[in-house]
Write a structure and sequence with these properties.
The complex is a heterodimer of chains A (about 120) and B (about 150). With about 120 residues, chain A is an all-alpha fold. Chain A has four helices and no strands. Helix content of chain A is about 80%, strand content about 0%. Chain A is elongated. Chain B has one domain: 3 helical TM bundles of succinate and fumarate reductases (Up-down Bundle). The structure holds protoporphyrin IX containing FE (2 copies). One protoporphyrin IX containing FE (HEM) sits at the interface of chains A and B.
Chain lengths: ~120, ~150
């Protein structure tokens, strides 16, 4: 007897590049929610006064402060690039299977370059 | 139509559109601020503050804060709805999800107030002009004077 029930395909052992791109967009979105506090803190200092601006500049010179800013900027870069891709997909640009794979790789590649550029700028 | 009391626009379709419109606003704002630092590598407080407190930037930043609140609420709501459900949390899932949503809303409210205070500046005179050239106020001589004695 043929069952009409959905078949469990157990996808646990492989992760298509499109799934990696998707889950990373989610992770970076939640990371940005937290990172917003740090960016607001820096903006508050930088706008407050000369001394505040200097404090913000000094903070992002410390190892932890610089790393936190880099992580936040890298997350923003990824979330932004993947977000633009998402908007294109909404208009059915690049939503074929091959196009989606290409778009996912492009997103990951561009974000890698953007994160490296942010790192080069900071260090 | 499926509705949910904790969604932002009370319908999934309006949340979907808001999520996208707010994404475009946030993206444009991020490029704008990032672009300023790229174009002005020397930066400095005075130049940055002068630019950021110009009327167009104050309006744009205010718009961006509104977009952030809508975007982050809808986004965090989506994530919470996906994971904080009975499959993982059993009968506690509603309480867990509401606590998560409450914490998200509280933090977003903090961001909103904080960001507006930063953008609009100087609440309670906490931020004097950056140049230090605070003009003397006409009533400055009155500051610190003892209040008139009450005729008892
Ligand atoms: C063969 C394997 C997989 C297939 C066919 C698949 C398929 C899908 C589909 C059709 C969606 C809905 C897309 C949409 O919201 O429009 C989705 C969303 C999602 N998948 Fe997968 N998936 C797979 C593996 C995985 C794995 C292994 C993970 C995580 C470890 C994952 C994480 C996610 C997440 C987080 C979403 C939500 C994305 C969003 O809301 O934007 N997927 N997946
Ligand atoms: C600090 C700012 C931002 C925060 C805190 C944030 C946060 C989030 C979160 C938590 C999600 C939900 C992710 C999910 O359901 O998987 C999301 C989704 C989304 N974000 Fe952002 N985001 C920000 C900026 C941006 C920017 C600049 C863009 C620009 C293109 C963008 C585009 C998107 C899009 C298109 C979605 C919908 C994804 C979907 O429907 O699956 N976001 N965001």
């Amino acid at each position: 007897m043929t069952s009409e029930r959905p078949v469990e395909i157990a996808p646990t052992s492989y992760l298509p590049v499109t799934a990696v791109a998707s889950i990373t967009h989610r992770i970076t979105g939640v990371a940005l929610f937290a990172g917003t506090a740090y960016l607001l803190f820096l903006l508050d200092l930088a706008l407050d006064s000369e001394a505040g601006f200097a404090r913000a500049a000094a903070l992002i010179e410390t190892g932890l402060g610089k790393f936190a800013l880099w992580i936040t900027l890298a997350a923003l870069a990824y979330h932004f690039i993947a977000g633009v891709r998402h908007l294109l997909l909404d208009f059915h640009v690049g939503d074929s299977l091959a196009g989606a794979r290409r778009g996912a790789w492009t997103t990951l590649g561009l974000s890698f370059l953007a994160a490296a550029a942010a790192g080069a700028w900071l260090w | 139509m499926v509705t949910n009391v904790t969604s932002f626009g009370r319908s999934g379709l309006s949340d979907f559109v808001l999520q996208r419109v707010s994404a475009v606003v946030l993206g444009a704002f991020g490029l704008c601020v990032g672009g300023w630092f790229a174009v002005n590598p020397e930066g400095g407080h005075a130049a940055f503050a002068a630019w950021f407190s110009s009327t167009p930037m104050v309006v744009f930043a205010t718009l961006a804060v509104g977009a952030l609140v809508a975007h982050a609420w809808i986004g965090m709501w989506t994530v919470g709805t996906d994971y904080l459900r009975p499959h993982y949390f059993g009968r506690a899932s509603t309480v867990v999800r509401l606590a998560y949503q409450g914490a998200t809303a509280a933090l977003l409210f903090l961001y909103l107030i904080w960001a507006l205070a930063v953008i609009w500046g100087g609440l309670n005179g906490s931020t004097p002009p950056a140049t230090g050239e605070m003009p003397a106020l006409p009533h400055a001589s009155a500051v610190g004077e003892a209040p008139p004695a009450e005729g008892s």
